[in-house]
Design brief:
alpha+beta; 26% helix; single chain; four-stranded antiparallel β-sheet
Length: 125
Amino acid sequence: MSDIGGDVERPAATVNAGDGRGPAHRLVLTVVIALGILILIGLGALVVGVAIKMRGHSGTASPGAAASLALPAGARIESMEVSGNRLILRLKTDAGEEIDLVDTDDGHVVSRLKAAPPDVPSGAP
C-alpha cells in the first residue's frame, strides 16, 4: 500500500531546481544592480553638466547690463563684427584707422590696434 499522507523526501538536487537562485543567478543579479547604479550616476552627471552649460559661464557683468566704451576723440565707427565673446570695431579717427577688440562680457577694451600712417618720401612734390 502507498503512503498518501506521509512525508515524502525529495532528493537534494531537486529542492532548488525550479527557483533559479544558484550562484550564477546571484552573480548576474549583482552585476545588473551595479550597472543600474552606474547608469543612474552617469545620468545624474549628465543632468548636472547640462544644467551648468545652460546656466552659462559666470562673468562680471550680469546679462543685459549696460557697458560703456569711450571712443577716441573724433572717432567714428566704420564697421562692427562679433566673434565669440569679442566685438571687433573698425574706427576712423583723426590720426588714422584703428581696430578695437572689446570683451562683450564686461565691455573692456582687450586690444587696440592703430594703423601707422604711410611713410611719405622726403622728395615728394
